[in-house]
From TrEMBL:
Signal peptide: none annotated. The keyword Phosphoprotein applies. SMART domains: REC (SM00448). Residues 6-129 form the Response regulatory domain. The modification 4-aspartylphosphate is found at residue 59. Keywords: Phosphoprotein. GO terms for biological process: phosphorelay signal transduction system. This is Response regulator receiver protein CheY-like. It comes from the Bacteria. It holds the Pfam family Response_reg.
């Protein structure tokens, strides 16, 4: 029996959310996706003890609260609220400075440049803590 991997997508682009969801579904892994167009709403979900997620796919460049601000707020959450989720940055930025900055956060397990492809989606499953 396959274990479901719950994924939280955080991206301000409705088109990117849809595309990423489709790629995850086609990857052959058992991903269950919840999506947020605003980083602050995703944080509220975590703070409120909503559906547990094993993996967070986080965009960097978003209005309001960007990905780095999300990471700062995420690290301030209690251990129970973080609940061992792995975070992978999923960004259109190929800037090495963004990659280095993101990977400097202890909670970030990886960095993938958009668009997500099926091979990268399969690899995401390996980012999830056992």
């Amino acid at each position: 029996m396959t274990v479901v991997c719950r994924v939280m997508l955080v991206d301000d682009s409705e088109a990117d959310l849809l595309f990423t969801r489709i790629v995850l579904e086609r990857a052959g892994e058992d991903f269950e996706v919840i999506a947020f167009e605003e980083a602050s709403a995703a944080l509220d979900h975590l703070r409120g003890g909503g559906t547990h997620v094993e993996l967070i796919l986080l965009d960097i460049n978003m209005p309001g609260m960007n990905g780095f601000e999300f990471l700062d707020a995420y690290q301030a959450l209690s251990r129970a609220q973080r609940n061992g989720s792995a975070i992978v940055m999923l960004s259109s930025s190929a800037d090495p400075a963004d990659r280095e900055r993101a990977l400097g956060y202890g909670c970030v397990a990886g960095y993938v440049t958009k668009p997500l492809d099926i091979a990268a989606a399969v690899q995401l499953r390996r980012q999830v803590p056992a």
